[in-house]
């Protein structure tokens, strides 16, 4: 059985998907640029040996004497320790050098936090819009392949096709891993937060991490009734570790998330994610430019056609024997 598709079917489908998702795409791509830079700035700001063992625990004891904090985050770029309290207790930011509470959160951390929430859930506490964007991007890539390769030219259409074909693997991998992560597919033997049973305080969990790693490489530590969890920069990779009273062990891998967030190699992967985000923005811009120019040409052609018809009718009124011929 043979199916004959209209010659412009794939192009029209490509166009309408892009137009429908243009605004969500812009949000995802621009926040992707910010989130691509986040692990890079953190990794490049780490100085091994900069934090003495016990420094973080001393700051926790000083500013959280009631042990209300359930997690901490070390913002290496801002040089700050962020304590996160359980429930809706909020956060407390402490300068690592002076040991004093910071009155105002750094602008970069606020931008990253806002971009992360917008990128993942569009501020509506569900990842459905982001998943829809991911599937739409994969659909656009498939339609682009079905339209075939066309020799690029020095115009918006040529730029669009050149970017898409040269960076095709990166442009497909980014939404694919985002969709898999959103669907909780890990390829790592289960969820990363497993096999924790004993209650640990934040200081106890931090002590076990510091016993194994340089304190300057710690990114985050959390604790609770089921043990603890830590994320540490280990040879350029931001890795997860489960913490118990007896041991600290690598957490089950989550390859889609590691690839999508660029944590498998903070600097290199962050750079690739930045290229992918900028390329997607360029594709969106050139695609909209192609569409707008095409619409402008159609309006101009309709206007010329309407003007030609008006002249023909006027000539026929003046001369009944007038025979119109195509120009």
Helix percent band: 40-55%
User: What percent of residues are in strands?
Assistant: 5-15%
Shape label: elongated
- Unreliable segments of 5+ consecutive residues: 190-196
Widest β-sheet, arrangement of strands: 3-2-1-4-5-6-7
Beginning-to-end CA distance, first to last residue: 44 Å
Total discrete domains? 2
Tally of strands: 7
Main sheet record: 7 strands, antiparallel
Structural class, please? alpha+beta
Q: What pattern of helices and strands is seen along the backbone? A: HHHEEEHHHHHEEEEHH
Number of helices: 10
Radius of gyration: 28 Å
- Overall pLDDT, averaged? 86
Keywords:
alpha+beta; 2 domains; 10 helices
Question: Could you characterize the architecture of this molecule?
Answer:
The chain contains ten helices and seven strands. The protein has 327 residues and is of the alpha+beta class. The protein has two domains: 1-47 and 103-187 and 262-327; 52-95 and 189-253, no CATH class. Strands 3-2-1-4-5-6-7 form a seven-stranded antiparallel β-sheet, with helices on one face. Helix 2 (22-44) packs across helix 4 and helix 5 runs antiparallel to helix 7 (168-182). The longest helix is centred in the C-terminal third of the chain and has 53 residues, at 266-318.
Secondary structure: elements and pairs:
Blueprint: H1 9-20, H2 22-44, H3 55-63, E1 69-75, E2 80-85, E3 91-95, H4 107-121, H5 128-147, H6 156-166, H7 168-182, H8 202-210, E4 218-224, E5 227-234, E6 237-243, E7 248-250, H9 255-261, H10 266-318
Antiparallel strand pairs: 1-2, 1-4, 2-3, 4-5, 5-6, 6-7
Helix pairs in contact: 1-5, 2-4, 2-10, 5-7, 6-10, 7-9
